Amino acid sequence: MIRILYIGDVVGQPGRRALHQKLEHVIDREKIDFTIVNIENAAGGFGVTEAIMDELSVLPINAYTSGNHIWDKKDFVDNYDHYEHVVRPANYPAGNPGKGSVVRQTAAGIDVAVLQVMGNVFMPPCDNPFYTADRELKNFGTVKVIIVDIHCEATSEKQAMGRHLDGRVSAVLGTHTHVPTADERILPNGTAFQTDVGMTGAYDSVIGFRPDEVLHRFLMNTPRKLEVAKRDIRLAGAMIEVDEITGRASSIVRIHEKVEE
Q1: Is 69 a catalytic residue?
Q2: Which residue of the set 20, 69, 85, 164 is catalytic?
Q3: Which member of 96, 145, 192, 229 has the lowest number of beta carbons within 10 Å of its beta carbon?
Q4: At what angle do helices 129-137 and 155-165 cross, to 10 degrees?
Q5: What does pTM read for this prediction?
Q6: Contact of 75 with 49, CB cutoff 8 Å
Q7: What integer pLDDT is reported at residue 42 of this predicted model?
Q8: For residues 161 and 130, is the Cβ–Cβ distance under 8 A?
């Protein structure tokens, strides 16, 4: 049995602070074998930079997922292919930099595949995520432990992906909406599922940003630059136990750690 830690969308400097303060503590306490972190909002809430990747390189992170905001920082996009352990949604059109999946190993030599697809509902146009997931799974060969990030706005689409892949992957975990859901469970055929694992960042906020600026957008219907909030910082994610022989999950537990002010 191996334990996998999945950390939800890291939002700005507060989210990175949570990683530095809490990640290793959780890994040691829970005896984690493999860690995945979503970084699409790590740079001020939009994208990631090479400097931030260097900053995070000191942490025990095996793979990174991203999302639609991964394209927001040009310096990173220009060098995306240099980062073998960073994945972007696999259903972006062919020809884009980066890759949609990766296989990495635990310290004990167990292969773990990480795949990300992006939903179609209320999201930028992309290929069908269901057919894309089917295609990508064929590339993993004999790998049994497979973690899928469904980066998606609609909860129904995330849950549908969980059912679509139930029994074929170890876990389907939702990202993008930044709000942790209380529906973590093992689906009938052995796949762990949670609609959204939540964000790692400031929770005295509106999905990680200062409430006053977000309210201005809603009340005035005019653009306003969003600034990352700074209070009530937490690390959020999910821990999944997986049988490395069958690839089936036996448990999924929410992770929610408050950062010291």
Answers
A1: yes
A2: 69
A3: 96
A4: 30
A5: 0.96
A6: yes
A7: 97
A8: yes
